[in-house]
Amino acid sequence: MMIVMKESATDEEIAAVAEKIERAGARAHPSRGARVTVIGAIGDVEQDASVESIGLEGLPGVDRVVPILKPYKLASAQFRHGERTVLEIDGRKVGGEHFALIAGPCTVESREQTMHTARVVRDAGATLLRGGAYKPRTSPYAFQGLGVEGLRLLAEAKAETGLPIVTELMDIRDLDAVLEVADVIQIGARNMQNYPLLTEIGRSGRPALLKRGLSAPLDELLMAAEYILKEGNQGVMLCERGIRTFENDYRRTTLDLMAVPILKELSHLPVIVDPSHAAGRRDLVPALSLAAAAAGADGIIVEVHPNPDEALCDGPQALPTDTFAEYAATVERAAALAGTALSAV
Amino acid sequence: MMIVMKESATDEEIAAVAEKIERAGARAHPSRGARVTVIGAIGDVEQDASVESIGLEGLPGVDRVVPILKPYKLASAQFRHGERTVLEIDGRKVGGEHFALIAGPCTVESREQTMHTARVVRDAGATLLRGGAYKPRTSPYAFQGLGVEGLRLLAEAKAETGLPIVTELMDIRDLDAVLEVADVIQIGARNMQNYPLLTEIGRSGRPALLKRGLSAPLDELLMAAEYILKEGNQGVMLCERGIRTFENDYRRTTLDLMAVPILKELSHLPVIVDPSHAAGRRDLVPALSLAAAAAGADGIIVEVHPNPDEALCDGPQALPTDTFAEYAATVERAAALAGTALSAV
Amino acid sequence: MMIVMKESATDEEIAAVAEKIERAGARAHPSRGARVTVIGAIGDVEQDASVESIGLEGLPGVDRVVPILKPYKLASAQFRHGERTVLEIDGRKVGGEHFALIAGPCTVESREQTMHTARVVRDAGATLLRGGAYKPRTSPYAFQGLGVEGLRLLAEAKAETGLPIVTELMDIRDLDAVLEVADVIQIGARNMQNYPLLTEIGRSGRPALLKRGLSAPLDELLMAAEYILKEGNQGVMLCERGIRTFENDYRRTTLDLMAVPILKELSHLPVIVDPSHAAGRRDLVPALSLAAAAAGADGIIVEVHPNPDEALCDGPQALPTDTFAEYAATVERAAALAGTALSAV
Amino acid sequence: MMIVMKESATDEEIAAVAEKIERAGARAHPSRGARVTVIGAIGDVEQDASVESIGLEGLPGVDRVVPILKPYKLASAQFRHGERTVLEIDGRKVGGEHFALIAGPCTVESREQTMHTARVVRDAGATLLRGGAYKPRTSPYAFQGLGVEGLRLLAEAKAETGLPIVTELMDIRDLDAVLEVADVIQIGARNMQNYPLLTEIGRSGRPALLKRGLSAPLDELLMAAEYILKEGNQGVMLCERGIRTFENDYRRTTLDLMAVPILKELSHLPVIVDPSHAAGRRDLVPALSLAAAAAGADGIIVEVHPNPDEALCDGPQALPTDTFAEYAATVERAAALAGTALSAV
């Protein structure tokens, strides 16, 4: 890291910072400019972490501390020397040249709704089936999902269609039940920094789809992934699902498609985009899906419902099943632009 | 709620929306303007919630849906008919005319650090002692707190100084251990929408200090409080601790002091401000503390350390113990401006 | 507009609001719910504007005022009954099925740089040539453009290549000089709400490319367009160029591609995307360009330089001329996905 | 500045960056860490600016460029060696220990409204009279101010009350008319980066009140001030008036009070706070005014109207004249907390 001193810093203050760096086990390397001195703290990675924790920002004469090394290791592109991770989920590949079309209902509501949707998305070429049994809801009075019964319906849908299942875990105490059904465990945006949950999912070894928090810088998303990876679980997909900005009219959040090429530069992990939750409006979903695929995403996760106007949750953003095949075909063409193809068995 | 139709909406579309509202058990009340029709959905509160869940936004001809009623009930100012909640925590009052000065180390590091800080803040007139045993850290490689040993030290500090304890719960599985020591359970910003955690804290009946998420609109903060309140726990303090904005230089987040008067208008719950985490720099803490108190906050929560430059966590934002008494005295004067006085036994 | 009253509003307060609405020439239409009364102010458009200006938000008992009608008229999709505007700029069409590839140097630096770039982009199929003679710079000490000499070089480039010219006007006093050369006048993001500038460009009748301000909601962008349109100038292109969000690492701003389908729903005006300024990094430009075209943009504006590492301004975001033809070909394929084709003579 | 190289950077890439720095006239000073090399570009200030303009970000192997020196000079605290600027405006001091209470109508509407308000604020101890003759309005259809007639009324108000006048200039062509009346020229938030306007006001020598743009980082505000200062005009007041964040409910913008202590650290210029425009609601203005004064602001600028419900512009945020004296007295007490006193003749 680099410590930028104030213009007014005295020689004693510069020496005190240098001494503190060396006490933490790194080397201090000052560069004196015409007006400002910058001190490099040089060491190996572990030392860098120690230096970070010694609170140099508060010392007299210090203007600011500029981190140089990325705070994540296992999630970084360097860790795999530039090679991209390709996950294999029950026979389906995700990442590299394999574009994952993940589709299904926001929430599992009934046997018929789930089976019908599963068949439609399978026939249209979907890679994985998504569906929520446990729903994090802003209001404690809103429908919270079918729970275990929802998991059972997802298992049934998998048995019939062969599609691997992506479903969300909210409560660490439901982990075992979810592990019985989920091929991929979804971590919702609100839980991106729920560290005990991340750690337990890491320990479970099951692939995870980690949604970016609404105000998480990409480095924080990668640090959250690091919590999972460091438990030995390599199966992490990153998911951009919209961020909070000043712009709240006409959409629920702002989809950050720049995150796609940037995450692919920073990390070896696959990058998925969720246009449905980002927009909250189905009419924006096709344009955003094409844009995500053309920008090089490794997949998209979209909501589909046989009758969106009757959905118990997030109906306005669900695509209707009856136009899904056509939608999937255009997404496939956009993915081809970026050199990927829909992944299926 | 009001449903604003598009200018191009047909009579059939208007009728379809109205019918859907009535099927959900509310009355539809259309107002036809020169260009646009607006349909009011009128019913009692529960009906309003039902109407909200029926996904009118996706229907043909609908421009947007404008909620009228606040989505929270128990947290609303109306629920207590304008009377403010005054909590009593082991003899100390918080709220109304009672200003809470909550102070202590970010993290419990050692017996000596904890005891010394506790004595200093008690002598300076602090209301409650804060201290972290479990620390949510962005990096999995950073110091995560002393855990149970930290709780034990807090209990000892309370035994000696008489100060009630505020400490954070991150993992639902640590609830019992925390309940043995905490007079107030802190819920961190990252966990503001960790619904299982909120629900269990609600059930425990122990007062909670609920920190606002970094991108949580005030209505979402109040909805999170509602999760606690609906379990029968009335002891919720709301805590503004800075929000994420485009402005990232020279501070960690942007303290939103407008939240103070607005939350006091929307809700009967006490409003606390955390200038330490908002700023991440101790030199900003005094000015922000005065501002918070002058703006009418019901308390502030600040970090104090005997030797901030040696702190294991967040040292740069900690006030040193040796100037804390002076600091507390100026905060007291600012609180007086807003008509409140430091709360003590 | 709808006026939402507080739960505590008295009958007198409701009557006072209604009376004030009627005095402003509209009809007041109250809907009394179980807890809250909402008053519709119904009238024709001009009355609606009058009602807006009467400050109902401040009246006793008023919770908030919800505008119903869009504040812009000439820019609205309704104004042209859903038909999209297709501009014709010296023989090139922009809008509808005509995708505009607008390319050229950030800043006109020299005769050779300008001519070479102009030839390259013309040969690759560009629609218009962009180039800055007057540059708004954050620092008063930075290179501010060649001014009149830059305009002269642009005229020469047009004479040679036949490409119409897009160039920025910053200072109202330079209008005549710019009108001599510019086929399209660019209004920079910082000047989006420079109303005298908008008005004079409106009066000039010359087509304008209006960049969205870094924190402008889409409605404000359309209101800025309205300033131009109301002077009788119909030639406005809207340009998304990135917005300010909490996310500042690894890019200059956050490109808001949701703006593309939303603006196309709200307005009949063509929508252009500027990936170069949004990113500030050339390596992100190709992915974002494909995404913009796939999302349905009516064009993109990109920066190109024969030797970006030597550019006087914004070199890091410029595409090199020697790969531009390949870039243009992939953009063309992405545009085809959304049903448009590169516009040329 | 420091150039952080990528982990994958080759020795050749490092050498190429170093060479480019030296060609620009600075010295290159590389620090090789275990994983990453950082190159310091060291030179005097002018060289630093040259290095900044050479586009190192785009070179192969470069991860990012970290500026070390502040981009402004005349506005920096260092420029005056830590001494604060105290302006003298027709006998009233602003800055240092002199707190400016700037008050008056949003817009000059009539002789009676202006004179009455001027007398009330003078009697309550105001330092300067504010009032708008030219109003930047989001809508081209809204009331745009009385123009020259408004300036005339302000001159009359000054003649009667002796209060110096603060009024906004929007159009460079109105400069001479405004100079005849204004003791301080206000630059609105939308014009913070209207460089021709800043330059001309700089040349006029008249003190300026420069409002922060809604999405301007503090460094950009100071760069805008630098445009004025570099023309030889030392009379700049900086004004925080709320920023755009995700939080749009219940207020117009988010007041950033952290800006007060930070600006006072970065710059010698006085810092004024505008709670009226920030909130858009008069009921928040008193709490925010106390907070601003307690945080150490050098003044506040507030809107006052004899009958806010009838105001032609921004009535909902105006304080009524009949409670203004009481308001001014509480602000005075809050300013005293921060060691300042109301400035008057």
Structure description:
The structure is a homotetramer of 345-residue chains. Chain A has 345 residues and is α/β, with parallel strands linked by helices. Helix content of chain A is 32%, strand content 20%. Chain A is built from eleven helices and 16 strands. In chain A, the strands form three sheets. An eight-stranded parallel beta barrel of chain A has the order 7-8-9-10-11-12-13-14, surrounded by seven helices. A four-stranded antiparallel sheet of chain A has the order 2-3-1-4. In chain A, helix 7 links the parallel strand 11 and strand 12. In chain A, helix 3 packs parallel to helix 4, helix 6 crosses helix 7 and helix 10 packs parallel to helix 11. The termini of chain A are far apart. The model of chain A has no long low-confidence stretch (mean pLDDT 93). Chains C and D meet through helix 6 and helix 7 of C and helix 6 and helix 7 of D.
Tags for this model:
homotetramer, 4-stranded antiparallel sheet, alpha/beta, elongated, 345 residues, 32% helix, 11 helices
